Give the backbone structure.
Amino acid sequence: MSIAFLNGEFLPLEDARVPVMDRGFLFGDGVYEVIPVYAGKLFRLDHHLKRLRNSLDAIRIEKPLSNEDWKSMLNELVNRNEGADQAVYLQVTRGVAAKRDHAFPPDCKPTVFAMSSSMPPSVDIDKISGVTAVTFPDNRWKLCNIKAITLLPNVLLRQQAIDAGAAEAILIRDGYAVEGAASNLFIVKDGMLITPPNGPTLLPGVTRDLLVELAANHAIPFREADISEAELFNADEIWLTSSTREISPVTLLDETVISDGKPGPVWKHMISLYQDCKSAIRRGEAG
Ligand SMILES: Cc1ncc(COP(=O)(O)O)c(C=O)c1O
């Protein structure tokens, strides 16, 4: 049985109920996080909580819990759920209002919800063969740095990708590739790892930022730069990153074969560094 947290209470997920006047339901007025758990430990928790704070500030919701309270609630949620590896979903909405009105209601108390789901078992790196991605124009709003629950464009784009037989959509804005529908984007060209700089066109991914740290710590040539559509198609390697997808090598982009149709050497180096981080947290040596 899956246990959820709703407004101060732990309860079976199927018993969790939110009133229809919740602004998350009516307006998508809220923000969220997805945090992977390895061996019962929340991975990069401080980074997720920092991004949550930024998202809450951006949409002007007062911090509903202190950092320490988030940590103890999330750890308890993990302990109450089965499985050493999990993915925790955390959502805060502006709360329940007396009437439907776009403007912020007075005295609205945020709704805090969290649940845990199972993580797919880790795959042997040697068995990872790469995924297909397709490019689509980015039709999202201009505040993509906020991890908002208002995800209709991302939902439609991901479905368009699936309908095209691909795993992910890579989004093109003003001639530049910014990120995936639910992932960040990296390319490798002539040994140089490149990702677009953080800003309003993309989500500051926790996985992305970890890869930036790993590149710096392991002398992997790296820069943050805009990636034109032409540079994307001419890349030696393309990767998509997210907390649940980890680092996914793209081997087919639209009709173009990337990296001879196999994961490239820089990906192999980075995924082994990433696996080391996961092993460290499993041993309780890192956060
Ligand atoms: C639009 C978008 N970009 C990037 C990411 C990757 O972020 P993270 O690495 O923090 O999971 C996500 C994750 O859901 C996303 O939805």
Remarks:
- The pocket of pyridoxal-5'-phosphate is lined by residues 34, 154, 179, 182-184, 203, 205-208, 241-243 (CB under 6 Å).
